[in-house]
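Thread title: Can someone regenerate the structure for this chain?

I was given the following input by a collaborator and told the matching structure tokens would be attached. They weren't. Posting the sequence so someone can regenerate them.
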Amino acid sequence: MALELLGLLARRQGAYHDAITAYEQALGIVRDLGLREETPFLLIDLGDLHHLLGDFEAAGILHKKALDLAQELGAQDALALAREGLDRAARRLGGEAGPADEHP
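Best answer:
Regenerated them for you:
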């Protein structure tokens, strides 16, 4: 939780690379602890940061991972956010329909 807050603070300050580092560390801890329900949200945050840095391919990959896990977990909030992120990444990469359109 502390790393997530540090990531949020870094993001708000425009220190996107520092935010990515904090979120990646948080993701590692969450995975080590087996807290799967937190994982999609951290993946979404990471995807959003990559989007802000202009790395739309990485953003799409992270949002796709979040979408798949959110579907598996039945996490509707994460599912909606992941779809939104996938659509944004697809638009920036020149696709007409986002990869999220493939998922019900």
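The chain is about 75% helix and 0% strand.
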